[in-house]
Description:
This protein is α+β, with helices and mostly antiparallel strands. The protein folds into 4 domains: 11-154, Acid Proteases (Cathepsin D, subunit A, domain 1, Beta Barrel); 168-262, 3-Layer(aba) Sandwich (Rossmann fold); 282-345, Dna Ligase, domain 1 (2-Layer Sandwich); 349-442, ATP-grasp fold, B domain (D-amino Acid Aminotransferase, Chain A, domain 1), CATH 3.30.470.20. Helix content is 21%, strand content 34%. The chain contains 9 helices and 27 strands. The protein has helices at residues 179-190, 236-248, 257-264, 266-275, 292-299, 323-335, 393-406, 434-440, 444-455; strands at residues 11-13, 16-21, 26-33, 40-43, 45-51, 56-62, 73-86, 92-104, 107-116, 125-127, 136-138, 168-172, 194-198, 203-206, 213-216, 219-220, 226-229, 252-253, 283-284, 304-308, 317-320, 340-344, 352-359, 362-370, 385-388, 410-418, 421-428. The strands form 6 sheets. The chain has a 9-stranded mixed sheet with strand order 2-3-10-4-9-8-7-6-5, with no helix packed on it. Strands 25-24-23-26-27 form a 5-stranded antiparallel sheet. A 4-stranded parallel sheet has the order 13-12-17-18, sandwiched between helices. Helix 1 (179-190) crosses helix 9 (444-455) and helix 2 (236-248) packs antiparallel against helix 3.
Amino acid sequence: MAHGENQHDELALGWEEWLALPDLGLPALKAKIDTGARTSALHAFNIEPFGTASKPRVRFVIQPIPGRDDLEVICSADVIDRRDVTSSNGESELRYVVRTNMQIGDHKRPIEITLTDRANMAYRMLLGRQALGDDIVVNPSESFIQPKLSYDLYKSSQRPAAAKRPLRIAILTREPDNYSTGRLIEEGERRDHVVETIDTSRCYMNIRTLAPEIHYDGKKLPHYDAVIPRIGASITAYGTAVVRQFETIGTYCVNGSEAITASRDKLYAHQLLARYKIGMPTTAFASSPKDTKNLVTLAGSTPLIVKLLESTQGKGVVLAETPKAAESVISAFRGLKADFLVQHFVKEAAGEDVRCMVIGGKVVSSIKRTAAAGEFRSNLHQGGTAAKVKITKEERETAVRAAKAMGLNFAGVDLLRSHDGPKVLEVNSSPGLEGMEKASKLNVAGKVYDHIEKSVRPAAPRRKS
């Protein structure tokens, strides 16, 4: 609503009133109306600037109910100014000034608010005369002339949907210039979020009970609303440790550390798929050189796939056409002291697989990948091609169940089309966006942010005593 739209309707207020700041996700605040104060003030702590010099923002935490420090709401807003404000006790303080919509009853208008710690005040908000305008009349002998609200609105069952606000988001990656990272940055900034890339390998951690921290390039990292892990296979162990630290300090991680670890350990991943009765190619594993022939027999007749547990993008995956070839490959892998799986080769897939992008428990897009001539691996990094494909209900359900089995909110699930239904080949915790977006013409990065915006809760870092 434009400023002044309700100016023809005079609004009467008492010296205290209920109001809402809906754009900040605050549905009910009890405010003192103070015509002696020029500026309005809102209770805030953990005040943290972020954003760019051309578009500065501030994030802060508020405990909206006096005497209740167990309920905290994170708010963020554009900064319009910083100014010195002199309080009633004569002390001057440099405060951030934000503009947001205020609603009292049916009356709504944009107002300017300064941010300051009012923890010891009876009212979380003070409404000054600058916010009142000419159309508001204050009767200092009355209170709560306008409709009363209730702090019950902060209960999860009754609370309205969280207000959209600019988020501070970190992408954990060692490849800040690749397509996927670029698209996640581009889409995040298009939605008014602040997106920063962090080199996972340059993070280090202060692990302690009361205030665990993550440091980067000599400085403590700020609080992020969400983290998008893009952990490379070569640093899975350290990368998941960093994600675990973010989880410890209360940051929402799109994919959690345990889920990433499960998907990267191909043996454990296949065991999880088996536990949840999700179709996959027959798979065998052993560690003793004496078991080579039995291992081949367990996996079925040749041809067979021999796959390193740490393989990614089709690397470390070998097709053995005959039993002799399979034994030779297995012996070679064992000579390297490498862990591997032996897997039945699904001939009818004919060098094709289906990549399903699962985000937030739904398949948002799918493509069919076809291997290059003379190649059995359909990975795009191995020269495969991709095209949009329509999947069956069974394939959709299998992909969703596979991502759920790993605990992944953002996953690329690779399926083979066999005679007896879809078979899960792999569940990828850092799926690339380029092939999927270009082939499907879908804004997959946008789907990631849809999930983040829906999932980031109004929880806050605990206030330091």
